[in-house]
Write a structure and sequence with these properties.
six-stranded antiparallel beta sheet, endoplasmic reticulum, Alpha-Beta Plaits, 20 strands, elongated
Length: 534
């Protein structure tokens, strides 16, 4: 008898009683028609406590043995028994109605549990989540699906009555500064007012279960994205909480170097279509002064989606993809931002490419000046810009001179595209960087080449194998005919000229590298619209 009047319990007796309780639970499990499932769990090496907890969930109908794949079973086997039971209880308390892959969701919750235990003071309770009543009403009204994973909540994609192809570039908006406790039950009604939604993808913190503060919304029509930007940018969703909405540009273009210059656009497309999926176009730039060069040693590959482009890039970088006896240098090309129709309707500057070395500015003024009065003309390498005083005259010149021969080559003429707001912000940042005491610039984009005389070329990298070609230097500025021809974005004019106007200035030089810092870095990998988080 203990001093406080209570009987002392023999530790060995306590262990025996616990073992008897577990045995009773296991016997009850077998008597309730789950003996086969229970035995499968035990045979797989699952702890008895974990197996008992799983059988309890099976009885609720939220999970079945067939829902668990080998990955989930192995994870439960390796997880500490007490922690696994805690995770399974949390799993059972979760709303699984919109979870398509329950094994992946369970593995995600185990990962979240581990992360929470590493963070001091992190609450173990999950986020409240959306209003299920409102959410069910929305899904019943629209017929859309909702797929929930540990990192994302995806509404739609495609809509139930959709029969066409997936929406392309310009249909998607990025919505940021979303309060962390707001979910799709509040966001869908907002964006529905702007146009028919293709899908809405809300990013979720896998540790807390709360929103990460941003989502992507794809519309069936481009007008929906434009309207969302107009209506919801700076919209006050809660008192003092305003949304930030921008049209997002999916990165679907890759820069590929080390291509034999004898290969034409058709050759390149045919070869890479065999090696990658989703290739829709190839952009190459030949040499106006050397017709034998069908490309300049590089090309831009356009894919039908960012997913296809990412898969192709992984294949290229894994060195498993070879053609014409060699490997390739691959990087992201900057996503294109197309000016809106209203902006393009005011442009009176023409972009001209395929100019040979014997074509002078005087000759350009003579040819284009026939159609109307010019403000100025500027030739840069094998392309140039023609400024008209009147837009009507520019359009007449475009119609008459496009695909006509000047200097022995057919020229391509198109309207120059002014920079978007994002490009103007880059311009202001570059100007600030130029004025700084130390210019540590972010490097090339995939459209820029250093003007001659600025810096010595980078040293050639070592060969990677017998007979392998060295990667080429960063590509020269691509011809802008139909591919984002920003006006004089890449070469500076003399200071006495005011050629920048409303267009972007030349970018800064790239950072130096190596001993003595004598070379420039290759093009950097562009950020892929946070979709790596999806």
């Amino acid at each position: 008898m203990a001093e406080n009047g209570q009987e002392e319990v023999d530790p060995s007796l306590e262990d025996q009683l616990l073992a008897e309780d577990e045995a009773e639970e296991s016997t009850e499990t077998m008597e309730n028609g789950h003996s086969d499932d229970y035995q499968k769990l035990i045979d797989h090496g699952i702890d008895k406590k974990v197996a008992d907890e799983l059988i309890k969930i099976y009885k609720t109908g939220k999970l079945s043995q067939s829902d668990l794949d080998d990955r989930a079973m192995d994870a439960l086997k390796e997880f500490p028994a007490e922690d696994a039971v805690s995770v399974l209880k949390q799993f059972c308390d979760s709303s699984l109605e919109h979870v398509a892959n329950k094994s992946a969701f369970l593995c995600g919750q185990m990962k979240m549990f581990r992360q929470r235990t590493k963070i001091q003071g992190m609450p173990n309770s999950a986020a409240k989540g959306p209003d299920e009543t409102k959410l069910k009403e929305i899904l019943a009204r629209t017929g859309y699906t909702l797929d929930v994973t540990t990192g994302q909540r995806k509404y739609g994609g495609p809509p139930p009555d959709w029969t066409g192809v997936s929406p392309g570039s310009g249909h998607e908006v990025f919505c940021g500064k979303i309060p962390k406790d707001i979910f799709e039950d509040e966001l869908i009604p907002l964006f529905e007012k702007c146009g028919k939604i293709w899908d809405l993808r809300l990013m979720v913190d896998s540790v807390t279960g709360f929103s990460r503060g941003y989502c992507f919304v794809t519309f069936c029509e481009k007008e929906g994205a434009v309207e969302a930007k107009k209506q919801l940018d700076n919209h006050e969703i809660r008192k003092g909480k305003r949304l930030k909405v921008n049209i997002s540009i999916a990165n679907v273009r890759l820069y590929v170097g080390s291509i034999p210059k004898s290969k034409s656009k058709e050759d390149i497309k045919e070869e890479f279509s065999k090696l990658t999926e989703g290739l829709v176009d190839v952009i190459v730039y030949g040499s106006a002064d050397n017709p034998k060069w069908k490309n300049r040693g590089f090309a831009f590959l356009e894919y039908d989606s960012h997913k296809s482009a990412s898969a192709a890039k992984r294949r290229f970088t894994s060195r498993s993809l070879k053609a014409w006896g060699g490997e390739f240098v691959v990087d992201w090309a900057d996503p294109l931002e197309e000016p809106d129709t209203s902006t393009m309707s005011k442009v009176k500057v023409l972009y001209v490419r395929n100019l040979t070395s014997d074509v002078t500015e005087e000759l350009l003024k003579e040819k284009f000046g026939y159609f109307g009065k010019l403000e100025r003309a500027k030739k840069i390498k094998d392309y140039g810009f023609i400024h008209f005083e009147e837009r009507e005259d520019a359009l007449k010149a475009l119609e008459s001179l496009n695909n006509q021969k000047i200097g022995g080559m057919e020229i391509e003429v198109s309207l120059a595209k002014p920079p978007t707001e994002n490009r103007k912000k880059e311009q202001r940042k570059r100007e600030q960087d130029r004025r700084g005491p130390v210019a540590m610039y972010p490097g090339y984009d995939d459209y820029w080449c250093m003007p001659p005389g600025r810096m010595p070329p980078p040293p050639p990298p070592p060969l990677s194998g017998r007979g392998m070609r060295r990667p080429p230097p960063p590509p020269p500025p691509p011809a802008r005919g139909g591919y984002d021809p920003y006006y004089d974005d890449y070469y500076p004019y003399p200071e006495e000229y005011d050629y920048y106007g409303a267009y972007a200035p030349p970018p800064p030089p790239g950072p130096l590298r190596g001993r003595g810092r004598g070379g420039a870095l290759p093009p950097p990998v562009s950020e892929s619209l946070l979709s790596v988080l999806i």
